[in-house]
């Protein structure tokens, strides 16, 4: 890049001679500190404000966001926010306005509701309702899992918006705590009545785990796909919350076909399912939510 002469002195004289304008040193920025730069020989010198404005930056001088570790799923929110602002300032193309997070969460929940109605056709609803009446802990756990699913879905879509606080991830935790507590209470109830307890075989436990994962993992993938339209500053947190919503939905649907009452194997299956779905959501969903920012377009050099 050719070196341009320093015109700060001329601009300074012009400012002093202009009527009604007090003289000011344009070699200093708004903070009163000189702008430091380097010429082609590597010597440091002060750049005037109009020097900076008159320079036409080449494409190599513009920031590039490709392969930047700070902008990956594990990067800091501040770095991702700064990159997003720079990307938006670089004349972005017009985009279609997104629906609100609540409306997008409702769309995902509607799909889960349609799946629930479809599976309920093949379930023994009379036995399910009888179990809810006989075991209040089971009914409470089922209700808490439904509430956790809804709140986690809302939190995930809220976290996909750049201006949302990461504290949205805390929203589904109270209902999740009630869900866990009610499940443990149901296990204690069955454990204290050994005559009514059922000891499932290893193959039955495996089949239940496979069924839960078969229900939850596609719902998690669907939510991650819906979240990709936005730009999250907290991709790992959004993916983890999406996984919580999906596994809550999977376990809720599993209750339609639960072959036994709460037992130690039941708690083990639930724990493995929650850990597996949230882990897969973070491992595969967080990179998918890390949108690659556009490289600034090349500018033609001035003649």
From TrEMBL:
Keywords for this protein: Membrane, Transmembrane, Transmembrane helix
One matching Pfam family: NrsF
Segments of skewed composition (Basic and acidic residues): 9-28, 36-59
Stretch list, region Disordered: 1-73
Regions crossing the membrane: 105-123, 138-157, 169-188, 208-225, 237-256, 268-289
Family matches, as InterPro entries: NrsF (IPR009495)
Name used for this protein in its record: DUF1109 domain-containing protein
Lineage: Bacteria, Pseudomonadati, Pseudomonadota, Alphaproteobacteria, Hyphomicrobiales
